[in-house]
Amino acid sequence: MNTATHSKIKKRHEKYRNIILGIAFLLIVVLTVGIFTFRNYPNDKENMVFLVNSEYTDNTTNPQKPKVKPFQSPKITDTVETEAIYIPQTRSLLFHTQNSVLDRIPAGMIYYEGKNGKLESSINRNETGIHEELTSYDEKGNFVDKLEIGYICDSVRHLKCAVIFKNKISIYEMKLSADNKNEEVISEYLISPQMKFSKRKTYKKL
């Protein structure tokens, strides 16, 4: 074999060797990148374990606190309701009045005086007879309402009197009916916390 032929064969071997070395180098680079990627990016199973462990850690170390609504102060109304009237059972001034004591009837009576106001009666005399009027006042002393709770004529043939108990006024009126018979009519009124009189019912006593 001459020198020229030997030189060509040698160059060809070096070319193949360089190609093989290049391919081997590329394989090494690709393999290195693959190993690095695999190690730094966990698989799905590892991800699931990580997520489960994270939730468990959050729930145990940082448990969720129940949401508490902010405190809201109770609404305050513009007006404060007053309490219901309570009056011990009391008979009016003209209850069971006889002719012999007509001149000794007091000029009036205070039936109630409290935080709601006052109930006060006054006796008025005129040509028809004696009248007792009940007047109510609010807590500031202002006039609120008026109601006749008593009447008696000179002959005592017509009598009106009342019983006051708690927040109710029961007015008993005895007089002659159209057929000249005695009849008794009862009228009931309620006293509101604002000291207003309101009629509840009227009926005849049998």
Description:
With 206 residues, this protein is an alpha+beta fold. The termini are far apart. Strands 1, 2, 3, 4, 5, 6, 7, 8 and 9 form a nine-stranded antiparallel beta sheet that branches. The protein is built from two helices and nine strands; from the N terminus they run ααβββββββββ. 13% of the residues are buried. The protein is 27% helix and 36% strand.
Radius of gyration: 54 Å
Structural category is alpha+beta
Cα distance spanning the termini = 160 Å
| Low-pLDDT ranges | 41-61, 73-81
Query: What composes the largest sheet?
Result: 9 strands, antiparallel
Number of distinct beta strands: 9
- What series of H and E elements makes up the topology? HHEEEEEEEEE
Fraction in helix: 25-40%
Strand content: 35-45%
Approximate shape: rod-shaped
| Global mean pLDDT | 77
Number of helices, where a helix is a run of at least 4 consecutive DSSP H or I residues: 2
